[in-house]
Each structure stands twice: as C-alpha cells, then as structure tokens.
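Sequence decides. Our protein:
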Amino acid sequence: MALKITLKPGERMVIGGAVLTNANSASCDLVIENKTPILRQKDILSEEKANSPCRRIYYAIQLMYIDEHNLAAYHKIYWDLVKDLIRAAPSTVVLIDSISEHILQRKYYQALKLTKRLIDYEQEAIQHVSGCAESV
C-alpha cells in the first residue's frame, strides 16, 4: 500500500537516507510506493540538538533507522548510552526496556516514537529538579 505525504513549502524530510526539501511555494504531494525509512521534519533531530542523554539515545536510533549500513556502530552507541542512563536514572528502565525491544526487532520508527516519551520524561525530571533547587 502506497503512502501519500504532503510537504508544506520549505518543509524537509528524510526518505531512505536522502534529505528532501520542498523548494516550491506551494505544497507538494509525494507517493512512496515501497517500504523505506521516512522521517518528517518534526521527527528529525540534528546532531547539535542531541544535547542531553535521552536526546542522544533518540539520535542514535534515528541513525539506525536511516543508515542501516552502519547498524553495528549505532547499536554500540545506543547500548552504551542506555547503560549510562539506567545507571544515572533507574526509573527509566521500564521505558528503556520497551525501546530496546523495538531495537532488537529492528522496529526503529516505533523505537523513535517511544524515545520521544523518554525525552519528555527527562524534561519533566529536569524541570522538577530545577523547581526544587529554586525553592531552597
């Protein structure tokens, strides 16, 4: 079954490792007729913005998803990051287990979706700690 995607003017996306940008001033429709990794602009995390432990995990999974030729290197990075995160924040282990299950099944897009929840959890924890520090 084909997937129809509409790109807004200036919107970017990754399809099978290629970065596409709608350079037109109007929306454009794309039809993807085979199975290939697809990330819309809102789901793409740049290396510069991978500036926290959970964002670095997301970035590693993103690379697994779009660059299967270097999976071994990205998997090593992922497992090292996960080990460090669980050591620092054991409360993340349930979510990490679910993400890792998707990784092991090569369901990288689903792993990315769960990792967004991990990033949200991280942000909440940071805000909580910041709030506690301000009240002292």
Observations:
- DSSP finds four helices and five strands in the chain.
- The first strand starts at residue 3 and ends at 7.
